[in-house]
Request: fold
Amino acid sequence: MKDLLDQIHTALGGSPDRGNVATYIPELAKVDPGHFGIAVATVDGQVFTAGHADVLFSIQSVSKVFALALALGKVGDALWKRVGREPSGLSFNSLLLLERENGIPRNPFINAGALVATDTYLGESSPREALGQLLRFIRSAADDDTIHINDEVAASEVATCHRNRALAHYLASFGNLHAEVEKVIGTYSHQCAVEMNCRQLALAGRFLINGPGMPRLISSERRRRMAALMMTCGHYDGSGDFAFRAGLPGKSGVGGGILAFAPGRASIAVWSPGLNEYGNSKLGTEAIELLVRETGWSVFA
Ligand SMILES: NC(=O)CC[C@H](N)C(=O)O
Reply:
């Protein structure tokens, strides 16, 4: 596995066409597009890495996986009254369908749906308490108490996220946001500003794979359902493309990270900040595609 990751790193690491770094969150625009790391945590307890696998990055929307687990843990299937389970076919921050669909976002991974998930785990508690719960979940999944939130990235998003505020107010107008808009925006922006490196993220993703030594933080049924949602909606309007190329459930973030997993086998984290036309890591997608081609880990194998 280590040799394979090194080969993938060598094959892609020097690629001149790396996509574009997200600039709409000012702090993310500062990240060096030359970074490229990969880590694989296998079900037998080993971790393999290549490239910049120990450099911290902003996990952004990858956090929506942990937020969904937390929201479901809090209210169970009642969440599905407030958010759907269908791909949207639109960009992650689109406002378009919300009006037509009465304030029920298509799925929990687009921003509108993720704001509902954040509102759900926030509930009546303070943002500090809710974020404490989120960090506890991620830290126990990764078995690493050093995982933290980057406050500069969070502040940078809070200061500029007009679209997310618009989405949140719109949700509130339909009665589908219960806490105050600013509380939800603050909690969501801090959630997105969790920092990890590829090694930590691959370890944190182990709660999604089934195996004797893996952290059991959610039921098997919930794990399967989350996998289905990640496969169908985890890469926004690029979800079909990612499923076609990787054949694995995955979740991307505009920081350039992707968490994917091969059920029963391994959790995979990649990071390269340049994004493709859908806002998903360009080299990250290519790296997972190569890894699956060599390992045969597609769930459709
Ligand atoms: N796709 C993403 O990673 C988006 C997350 C980002 N925090 C936002 O809301 O815009």
